[in-house]
Amino acid sequence: MAKRKNVLGALVTAAVFISLVTGCGGANAPTTATPKAPDAPKPEAAKPADTTAQKPAGKIVVGFSQIGAESGWRGAETQSIQDTAKADSTIELKFSDAQQKQENQIKAIRSFIAQKVDVIAMAPVVETGWEAVLKEAKDAKIPVILVDRGIDKKNEDLYTSFIGSDFILEGQNAAKAMAEHLGDKGNVIELEGTVGASAAIDRKKGFDDEMKKHPNIKIVKSQSGDFTRATGKQVMEAILKSPEGKDIQGVYAHNDDMALGAIQAIEEAGKKPGTDIKIVSVDGIKEAFEAIKAGKLNTVVECNPLLGPQLFQAAKDLKAGKELPKWIKSNEDVFSGQKAIDALPNRKY
Ligand code: AHR
């Protein structure tokens, strides 16, 4: 019996080892999958990484580890990166969808290292836990570019550049808008993004800090809706049924998808989103602009997902031996009322 257990144990260990070394059979393996609609639960089956593939001559090979497809914003980011790569004959993109799992991102990065890509790009699902794999990339002399989300400050030497938004500023702008909509007093619910994600940590920090200037506004409940519409709706439904939910005047959602879910929950509870309860969110997807036009959402703080052109320019600059700025910051705006309605026809995502 003990002998059989040992044989079994050895087999399991061998299987795990093989999958780590080859990157095979997991969701981490680079694919050329097209982006899915928000909340689409079933990602395309991943293809095994070909670690023996020859590098295409004259091309810059970029391995990109995407978080998943949790929101409309994420779909727009994936599309921007894939479209930009497709239109550029000097770029070869290896795309990997991690289905919201850090372990899949780590496997994908190991697979990119094994394939000797020129540049590794990643949108880290959470801030911490990257030290070991990024050290491996550094040892292999492959530069790493963070796209959209950051990692903890103590590991700043493990990446070359960060391309993305100032999430703290987004949180501050959301708080300013909320204070204005509430006439400086009221109770607010905060729907946070994925626990441990830089976008959630910093949007909360910016909002909470700015709210200290508005002592008559109280954040009565703050809970994660994981950046998805379905969870945003569920969380809002539960809050509306709880004692805190009986007297609320505002909802701050860390992204549009959760705000759109909350809007549904508020309507189903017989209240008017945008009027009875003011809603402020971050991202700026087309559907959020439509909700503003319909009077159901009050302000959207823009966060730019169209990062493909900047990413591949950065990869080319690196290849040409240029030094990149540590932070390539996105320019963003804030939209409410008529300004949002006027901008709607030209929204790109
Ligand atoms: O990291 C950016 C955030 O991630 C976006 O605001 C959100 O929609 C996405 O899922």
Main features:
349 residues, alpha/beta, Rossmann fold, 2 domains, six-stranded mixed β-sheet, 11 helices, 40% helix, elongated, disordered N terminus, binds alpha-L-arabinofuranose, carbohydrate binding, SBP_2_dom
Characterise the protein shown here.
Belongs to the bacterial solute-binding protein 2 family. Its main location: other. Residues 1-29 form the signal peptide. Residues 31-53 are annotated as: Disordered. The chain is of the alpha/beta class. The strands form 2 sheets. It has a 6-stranded parallel beta sheet, sandwiched between helices. Helix 3 (102-114) runs parallel beside helix 4, helix 5 (167-181) crosses helix 6 and helix 7 packs across helix 8. It has 2 domains: 60-164 and 306-330, Rossmann fold, CATH 3.40.50.2300; 167-303, Response regulator (Rossmann fold), CATH 3.40.50. 40% of the residues lie in helices and 17% in strands. The chain binds alpha-L-arabinofuranose. Alpha-L-arabinofuranose (AHR) binds at residues 70-71, 73-74, 148-149, 199, 227, 255, 257, 282-283, 303.
